[in-house]
Amino acid sequence: MKKHVFVVLVAVAIALVWTVTSLAAPPIKIGCIEPLSGRVAFAGIPCKKTLDMMAEELNKAGGISGRPVELFHYDTEMKEDVTVRAFNRMIQKDEVTAIIGPLESWTAMAVIPIIEKNEIPTIMTASGSMIVKPVRKWVFKTASSDELVIDKMLSHMKSTKVERIALISSQDAFGEGGRNSVLPLVSGYGIKIVFDERFGGDEMDLTPLLNKIRKTDAQAVIAWSSKRTPNVVTINYRQIALEQPLYIAHSALGADFLEGAGKHAEGVFTASCKFAGSGELPDSDLNKKVIEDYKGAFKKKYGEETNQFAAGAFDAFNILTAALKQAADNKPKLRDAIEKTKGYVGAYGIFNYSPDDHAGLTKDAIVMYQVIGGAWKPVR
Amino acid sequence: MVTDIIQAIFYALSVGSMYALVALGVALIYNATMIINFAQGEFVMLGGMIMVTFYGQWHWPLYISIPLTIAITVLVGIGLMKVSYRPGKSTSLITVLIITIGASMVISGSAMHVWDTNIHRFPPFSGDAPIKFLGAIIAPQSLWIIGMTVAVLSFLVYFFQFTIYGKAMKACSLDQTAASLLGLRVRRMVLLSFAMSSALGCAAGIMLTPLTMVDYAGGMLLAIKGFSAAMLGGMGSIVGAVIGGFIFSFLEGFTVTFVSSTVKELVTFIVIINVLLFMPRGIMGHRVVEGFETEEVFLD
Questions:
Q1: Helix spans in B52-92 (H)
Q2: Would you kindly state where each structural domain of chain B is located, as residue ranges?
Q3: pLDDT value at B276 more than 50
Q4: Range in B56-60, B76-80, B131-135 the model is least confident about
Q5: Torsion of CA A142, A147, A152, A155, to 10 degrees
Q6: Between chain B's N and C termini, which has fewer beta carbons within 10 Å?
Q7: B92 and A CB contact within 8 Å
Q8: What angle do CA A300, A303, A306 make, to 5 degrees?
Q9: Packing angle between helix B238-258 and helix B264-278, nearest 10 degrees?
Q10: Per the confidence metrics, is the pTM higher than 0.80?
Q11: Which helix (H) or strand (E) element contains residue A184?
Q12: Is the Cβ–Cβ distance between B200 and B28 less than 8 Å?
């Protein structure tokens, strides 16, 4: 008899716990995927920390209409196949409402078919413009497109009377994306490409390739690649004493490029978002306060500096949660709400999504940078 | 045109030396143990990374930081020998191969945690000012690398041809049982080969880093290039390893200069596959391989 009482008590207890927990509002699940290991981890880990920080703040403030958000973090390992598996897992097992990430253009391209098939609103933090060109129904992105960056570089070249350029790019999704953005834009600025060659993304010595540029009459060089090759290009460029201004991809905008390339980096140009040089922006700049506040909050919580890659996650989270407040976890409604985002002042610039534009930024969000005195400084 | 050729030659000499130094390390261990060491590239990475800390960040003088860097790497090399070389226990060659690949991942993974994922470099020993030679431009550091390859090659040839240790090491690779019956301490020889090979890899890393930079993941890529060079030259042959490295780099340099960097790997590997098709043991390879018929063994 005693045994029976015990069983009944346990059953009652379980039932009670179950009802109590199910009465609490169910969380809204958000999948987050960034490179947390490998060469890009320096960019991915701050993204994860940023998202954790913001989710914590949001939940403390009451969440989304009383429902907390719950994040599911995954590592891309910088590999397409790993990213595809993680996406399938987030969609099927975790049943997330929306996804933020990934950061790398090549893993981003690999998962677009899955996103479109499963109709899951996704805000990517990668820069490649091919992600949103052509526009995919369910895919949005934050970080400044390489197209805008190149546009800014070309207008900077035009203002310094450059008419002929050499273009070298890596043979991967990032390099191809950059090259494909340069080619249609140059004619608008009256610039001619006199040299155009691609190289392997793991190259350790590019002297022979750069030597061929010497024989052209190019007045400036664009080197579009990521990972370690921006450093290799820069060092080899100085070693063989090429004199033309060097424009490298925005992937190099960071302290590790400055450390790797050392004094060879002096004078190198790139263009990117306002984030890195926010301290030097005029106070009238709308984005300045957002960026400085975010930088301060991150530093306060983790005791270290964040970077512009994580700023993409910052913007993605804000855009997504604003849309979630209107649409909750109804995915088609959520997608429409994201697409209607207008005038969001973020860390990257001012976002205006529309049915034809899932990148949201304009050239105004981009600033030219140059290495001066061993640091990236915004220049005109 | 002349300038182009000279430039391509200098590129090939410096990059080829880099491949050759890795290939030499692979050949050295193979010579003593028949083990193909895929972790050879990690020694290069370790050499570069430790040197970045000692010399680049802490600014210790060269005469302290170089020996210390080599000593640490040699310890890692000896550790690798302890896990991969087990006489008596019937581990097949393929198992050992997988152990070395695993070791390579362990070393690079640990390096990621000890240091970070960034790319590092320290200033070259003799400055950055390029040297001009008949219109071609040469980085001073590549002269260091070429010089070191020549020195290492001459030392190893001398070592294997004329010293008792070198001959003993060779004997161990031919037949370990017979060698130990003759009173050779096989285990000591194997230890020596791992130590020499890791010191060599480490020295290569120290020389290369100012030119090519280093990060925790660079070892595997180098190991693959070095291994291909060693295969091409003939596995186990010291001179062959260097020849293999230079064929590799000359093909790359001339393809980039006169065709396009887009097809670099394509041209290189087409040539290498063809060489290995017609000369399966590589250019300088031994004609002796375990399991071959006795007549063939005596031919050599």
A1: 62-84
A2: 2-299
A3: yes
A4: B131-135
A5: -160
A6: N
A7: no
A8: 85
A9: 140
A10: no
A11: helix A173-185
A12: yes
d(CA B172, CA B191): 12
With CA atoms as reference, the chain B residue closest to A201 would be B262
Question: Using CB atoms and an 8 Å cut-off, which of residues 232-271 of chain B contact chain A?
Answer: 253, 256-257, 260-262, 264-265
Q: What is the DSSP letter of B50?
A: H
Nearest to A111 by CA among A85, A147, A72, A137: A85
Q: What is the pLDDT of residue B298?
A: 39
Around B7, how many Cα atoms within 13 Å sit in the side-chain half-sphere? 25
- A-chain CB neighbours of B253 within 8 Å are 208
Give the CA distances from residue A153 to residues A185, A194, A220, A257, in Å, rounded to whole numbers and listed in that order.
Answer: 11, 17, 11, 19
pLDDT of residue A314: 92
**For chain B, where are the alpha helices, taking DSSP H only?**
2-33, 40-51, 62-84, 93-114, 140-162, 164-174, 176-181, 186-212, 218-233, 238-258, 264-278, 294-299
CATH class of the B2-299 domain in this structure? mainly alpha
Rounded Cα–Cα distance for residues B148 and B137 (Å): 20
User: Residue A217's CB: how many other CB atoms inside 10 A?
Assistant: 11
Partner-chain residue, chosen from B112, B217, B256, that has the shortest CB–CB distance to A208? B256
Of B123, B215, B261, the CB nearest to A198: B261
pLDDT value of position A211: 85
Q: The tokens of B230 are what?
A: 């060693």
Q: Taking 80 as the threshold, does the pLDDT of residue B129 lie above it?
A: no
Average pLDDT, chain B: 85
What is the interface size between A and B, counted as CB pairs within 8 Å?
A: 92
Terminal-residue alpha carbon distance, chain B: 44
Structural domains for chain A: 28-144+286-362 (3.40.50.2300), 147-278+366-379 (3.40.50.2300)
B128: closest chain A residue by CA: A239
pLDDT band at B124 (very low <50, low <70, confident <90, very high): confident
Residue of chain B with shortest Cα separation from A242 = B137
For an interface test with B, give the residue of A196, A209, A211 to mutate (most B CBs within 10 A).
A211
- Work out the angle at residue A161's Cα, subtended by the Cα atoms of residues A156 and A167, and round it to the nearest 5 degrees: 65
d(CA B80, CA A205): 30
| Any A CB within 8 A of B116 CB | yes
B182 phi-psi bin (left φ>0, alpha ψ -120 to 50, beta other): alpha
**Token pair for residue B3?**
């300038």
- Identify each DSSP E strand in chain A by its residue range: 28-34, 69-75, 98-100, 122-124, 139-141, 164-170, 192-199, 220-224, 246-248, 269-273, 344-345, 350-351, 366-372, 375-379
CA A212 to chain centroid: 33
Output the pLDDT for position B169.
Answer: 86
Distances in Å between the Cα of B2 and the Cα atoms of A242, B136, B251 are 19, 9, 17
Tell me what pLDDT residue A140 has.
93
Q: Which of A189-203, A331-345, A355-369, B26-40 has the highest mean pLDDT?
A: A331-345
As a 3-state breakdown, chain A gives helix, strand, coil percent values, each rounded to 5, of: 50, 20, 30
Strand A375-379 and strand A366-372: the pairing is antiparallel
Q: pLDDT for B173-229, tens place per residue?
A: 778 788 888 888 888 888 999 999 999 999 999 998 888 888 888 888 888 888 888
Closest to A125 measured CA to CA, from A354, A335, A311: A311
Q: Does A232 touch chain B (CB under 8 A)?
A: yes
What is the rounded distance in angstroms from the CA atom of residue B242 to the CA atom of residue A320? 57
Give the whole-angstrom CA distance, residue B193 versus residue B78: 9
Query: Is the Cβ of A248 closer than 8 Å to some Cβ of chain B?
Result: no
> A209 vs B4: CB contact, 8 Å cut-off?
no
What is the mean pLDDT of the segment spanning A124-133? Answer: 86
